[in-house]
Amino acid sequence: MTRKGSSDLYITSTFQSLAQAVIPPAYYFQNVSIKIEPGALELRIYEYILAILHQSMSQKIKSQMNVASMAESTAQLLDSGAVALIQSGENVNLLTVSGFPYGGPFTYLSQIDRLKAISIIDRLQINKKHLSLPYKDNLGLIKNMMDVLNQLTLFGFYSEWTGYGSSATLPPEKRRLEYVPVGWEQTHYPGPSYAYRDFRGFKAFMPNKRKK
Amino acid sequence: MHDVIVIGSGGGGAVIAKELGEKGLKVLVLEAGPWYGNQKWPQPNLDAGGKSSSALTDLNIHLYKELLNKEEMNMNDLVTGRFRWGPADRSKAQWFRNIKQKAMIWQTAGVGGTTQVYTANCPRAYPHAIDGVWPFSYKELVPYYEKVEAELPVHFAAATAKEELFYYGASRLGMNFTPVLDVQWPGYRPQPNAILPPNQAILNSSGVTDEQLSWMEGCTLAGHCINGCPHGPSVDKIAKRSTNVSYIPLALKTGNVCIRPNAFAVKILTETIDSELRATGVEVRNTWTGEQEELRAATVVLACGSIESPRLWLNSNLPKNQFVGKGLVTHNMDWITGIFDEKDLISILGSREIRPFVGNTCGARLDYPGLGALQTTGLSPGLTASFYGLSESGYYFNQNVPSKSSWDVEGGLAGPFLRKWMDEYPRSLSILVTTDDEVDEQNGVTLDPLLSDENGFVPVIRYKATKKSERKQIKLAGLAADVLKKAGAKKVLRSNWPSGIMIHMESTMRIGRVVDSNCEAYQVKRLYIADNSVHVNGLGGVNPTLTTQALAVRTAEKIIETYFS
């Protein structure tokens, strides 16, 4: 598998391209102009995904499983899906290497093809011989991780992580909301609330309520 | 030496501790996670704080409100959130579970256990799921249900927009309205839940501000049931009745219960006395310092939940029992969402949006004995989106939905379609499917033979729905989609969640297999279990907590009758 640059750059590029595919920028037409809302790449959701992968297992568990880096193993897994997609000829668009200069085959794919590569991994239609730990001989974990990557991107984008601003990469105890999170704004979610005045009555009451 | 050590302070442990304390027994509760809202732990995620607490006056509402800040990532992130399955110190990794399938296990360490994040739904089991299946009748359970319902207390949920819309759809589908507690027939009803009814001051005319309302007794319909409900005038009067604000304060009030957070039980201690094996104590590990110590008691109650209870049994090398860990049910859940048009909502609700984040998170339900249940779920957007990302069948664009299906789209969402779908969040209504799934002894918890953490060998968890359970789930998914369509949904999504979604775990230490009908272990005297794991089955597909709590009251009586009368 061809790789350019150091491991960290490779990992970052791979997760940047993942985030972009799962939540791309959105384009809204407003009269004669186009409004562009940023996606998970622009909002650096990949940093959240990487932080979670890093913290998801203790060092003791990682060493027993011989896992050096969940992020690197997962980036390689995404590449194996890309290779399988390209070999099958099912990619919709041509490959391009300009977007993420340090990434592997996964990053060469168009956004929809990256999702198709994830689907191929999800169906386990990949070459399983060269997978690294913890994915080697662990097909269930491979399938699970495809959902986890999706989930993390969505949770990172639509929860308050983008509102933490400069404190986003700090430990959770030190984070503070600095802005209205983009995902909350886009979904018209007001965030933490004291109360809503939408009481529409009771449709029923408890029968034979026992007095203590 | 304590009379009783209870391991776990969640749905079952807190109840049995209070019941035993009330009868004068000296009880020590061990809890693996932190304690939020107790002034002995002013920074519960940063410092080890105190050792234990046994005074009601230690509870501090200001601290509780400060910690439960209602931000969904801060509270609910499964890896780093305040509500996670892991040690109090959030800079440490979560506790590892080995699961080799698509899965999500939603459990929470800390005083209150998983009830800290539960939506407080308190339906009773379907009678047909108990009678003739359990070793005692539904009728025998009813007085215990009534006692817990009175003490929590349980009410039928208040209606907001999403409940009204659900009732409208169910009614138009021809379902009966069945506002009862003992459910024999299909029908819809408000959720019986442990959420205090809204204060009358919630009416706009009251002149009370939102913030003032949040300091008064009663639900404020703020919709943060899962993010952490901090609303109320004192810790014991918080609107959502997690056990840390209901049974724990009642337990402390007895003066006989001491609670020790940050204490992970790593071994059940036993001795052979008069030729019978007895539980005599617990070896416990401090999650901050790593120190271990042995604590002794006349009786031990396991209440660690359906994963950790069998894990602890196995890690303690208690006698071999082929049923330990076997038979896991999860209600084989699914999630169905409808998107509505503004003009339809105006005519039905009088408002342009549903705003699913308003009101009790699961305020309405439809029961279908024989199949399971449907419940409305209104989650904050991060959690909502993350649940759209899960599917057994992969991405939606890989699926061909059969034309006869009641739903229009199936699978996990991503890409531009996901964004458009989330743009409709204010006009969406989601329904959780909980299936009456079968006990299958292929499913359950075993110990990993190689991997261990600081608390012992880690659990390996497996769940695969039986064919029968899958058929029931699909029928319920269709029913949910029909309700949404009848309510006016323009587009309906079936997520087809993986069968490894574990929110309702039960039946891994079943009555009649591991414990007797008093919930005492057959092979270890004076060892009782008071959590979901003892359920003989999945109760017909209804939320398990109330039944666990009713059983905990019953088990407390049995403990006293047997060993302390």
- Written as H for each helix and E for each strand, in order along the chain, the element string of chain A is HEEHHHHHHH
Structural class assignment of chain A: mainly alpha
* Low-confidence segments of chain A: none
How many helical elements of chain B?
Answer: 14
| Main sheet characteristics of chain B | 7 strands, mixed
Helical proportion of chain B, percent range: 10-25%
Helix content of chain A: 40-55%
**N/C terminus separation of chain A:** 70 Å
Folded structure, characterized:
- The complex is a heterodimer of chains A (212) and B (565).
- The relative contact order of chain A is 0.14.
- Chain A is built from eight helices and two strands.
- Chain A has one domain (7-186).
- In chain A, a hairpin with a 2-residue loop joins strand 1 and strand 2.
- The radius of gyration of chain A is 21 Å and the shape is globular.
- Chain A has a two-stranded antiparallel sheet with strand order 1-2.
- Chain A has 212 residues and is mainly alpha-helical.
- Chain A has helices spanning 7-22, 45-55, 59-64, 70-88, 105-108, 111-122, 139-158, 182-186; strands at 26-30, 33-37.
- In chain A, helix 1 (7-22) crosses helix 2 (45-55), helix 2 crosses helix 7 (139-158) and helix 4 (70-88) crosses helix 6 (111-122).
- By secondary structure, chain B is α/β, with parallel strands linked by helices.
- Helix content of chain B is 25%, strand content 20%.
- Chain B has helices spanning 13-22, 61-67, 72-76, 127-130, 138-151, 161-172, 210-213, 247-253, 305-315, 342-349, 381-388, 415-423, 467-486, 545-564, and strands at 2-7, 27-30, 98-99, 103-105, 155-156, 187-190, 192-193, 257-260, 263-273, 276-286, 292-302, 334-339, 364-368, 372-377, 409-410, 428-435, 444-453, 456-462, 491-494, 500-502, 527-529.
- The longest helix of chain B is centred in the last third of the chain and has 20 residues, at 467-486.
- Chains A and B meet through helix 3, helix 6, helix 7 and helix 8 of A and helix 3, helix 5, strand 5, helix 6 and helix 7 of B.
